[in-house]
């Protein structure tokens, strides 16, 4: 009988060993200038990762690059929006865009968000549920 290898997370973008930059710098992704702040990668590696791992905002169609906070759009074709500028309801916040995937709220901050928390709407429901249980 053959052992089945466990499903593994997509490989992380290679570790950058180049000299880092302090402060902010601009990269170009899908023809759009995107300002990034100092990172664990040099600007060239941030650029390469962003080109391979970005997605598109449902509202402004500008790229969402790794490290940006995101909200849910309610659309299936472009499910995410920039959390700071394009989200209609702040409670639609759902995490951070990672290297080609969403880092959900629980993974993003496990001490603050319970497993299964999709958006801040869920946090409000969980608080109401806990308050309701404690009043009975």
Write structural notes for this entry.
- The protein is an alpha+beta fold and 136 residues long.
- The protein has a domain of 80 residues.
- 22% of the residues lie in helices and 23% in strands.
- The protein is built from three helices and eight strands, in the order ββαββββββαα.
- The strands form three sheets. The chain has a four-stranded antiparallel β-sheet with strand order 6-5-7-8. The chain has a two-stranded antiparallel sheet with strand order 1-2.
- A hairpin with a 4-residue loop joins β7 and β8.
- The protein is globular, with a radius of gyration of 18 Å.
- The protein starts with 23 loop residues before the first strand and ends with a helix.
- The relative contact order is 0.12.
Helix and strand element order: EEHEEEEEEHH
Radius of gyration over all CA atoms, rounded: 18 Å
The fraction of residues assigned to DSSP E strands is: 15-25%
- What's the arrangement of strands in the largest beta sheet? 6-5-7-8
Which structural class is indicated by helix and strand composition?
Answer: alpha+beta
Largest sheet: 4 strands, antiparallel
């Amino acid at each position: 009988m053959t052992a089945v290898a466990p499903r593994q997370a997509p490989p992380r973008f290679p570790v950058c060993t180049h000299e880092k930059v302090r402060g902010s710098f601009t990269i170009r992704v899908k023809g759009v200038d995107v300002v990034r702040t100092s990172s664990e990668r040099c600007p060239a590696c941030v650029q390469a990762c962003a080109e391979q791992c970005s997605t598109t905002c449902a509202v402004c169609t500008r790229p969402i690059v790794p490290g940006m906070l995101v909200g849910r759009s309610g659309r299936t074709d472009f499910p995410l929006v920039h959390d700071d500028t394009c989200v209609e309801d702040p409670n639609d916040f759902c995490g951070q865009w990672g290297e080609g995937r969403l880092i959900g709220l629980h993974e993003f901050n496990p001490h603050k968000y319970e497993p299964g928390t999709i958006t801040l709407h869920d946090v409000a429901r969980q608080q109401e549920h806990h308050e309701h249980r404690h009043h009975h």
